[in-house]
Design a protein that fits this description.
The two termini are 24 Å apart. The chain has 336 residues and is α/β, with parallel strands linked by helices. Helices cover 40% and strands 16% of the residues. The protein contains 14 helices and 12 strands. The protein folds into 2 domains: 2-92 and 307-335, 3-Layer(aba) Sandwich (Rossmann fold), CATH 3.40.50.720; 98-298, Rossmann fold.
Length: 336
Amino acid sequence: MKIHYFANEDWEESYVKEKLGDADITFHTGPLSAFPDLRDDSAEALCIFIDSKVGEAEMARFPALKLIATRSTGFDHIDLAAAKARGIAVATVPFYGENTVAEFAFALLLALSRRIIDARELVRKTGTFSQDGLRGFDLAGKTLGVVGCGHIGVHMIRMARGFGMNVLGFDMHQDEGAARSLGFSYAALPDLFAQSDIVSLHVPYNPHTHHLLNRETFAQMKKGAYLINTSRGAVVETDALVEALKNGILAGAALDVLEEEGDLTDETQLLSAPHPKEEELKTVLEEHYLIDHPRVIVTPHIAFNTDEAVRRILDTTVDNLKAFAGGKPENLVESR
């Protein structure tokens, strides 16, 4: 099976080659979009990360394509309808960092509650040890609302309970056994929003979760709540988030993902495009407001990014490629 692999880091090549053995694989450093002239009539597999958008036009450049193996749990960067129409399978990494992402989300919660980033910046910039403006709040006794109680959400709940927090959870598929053993309660979304001091998002991105947090749902929130998002940027409507911060519904937020984070890395292209999309441009400007906001922490989509988790991602991806080549595909989107 001939594979084109779009790597994030140079070391991936030696790591993956060692595990794949004599596979016919070509490595490229960067996303698929960085190679607009790349075409291959005989390539059967693309191995990509979330920064590679694969739609009808990209698939057409590889007419023999049989598999898209993404090194991620989410697959919203792939046009599944186009893949299905062409008979192309899509394999993902369903589990790699349940603890990894949850630990990062909880780190963001601690950074918010104890003003850790503000304190560090004050000492770094002024050299003084003033405590002015750095008073935080306890987590013990506060209510955490966890939206999405899957593998990552459950890890978040376990840590919150260890800190003495009350936890409300929302999930389309409720596990009452887990609720009893971990000591949390399920709630309808409006009730969760109304009662939670902090809301943490752990849902996949799909048509059902697009702008799950919008003007209507922000209006249901407890005044002065905090938001943590380590899921996907488009789960939160940026316009509504800015408004919620301005009108005091939210006291602050910690965001590892943004709705148009790709455009933030290439603003020149967005601004110089012949027909820039007005809504995308507006969102990018609003995201600069969030980045500069004194009560908002923005990090560059790194919740997954630990040595252990990245190696688990690569190991599972290699297994997916081997399984497909051997006629026994694993972790296909359609099989879930």
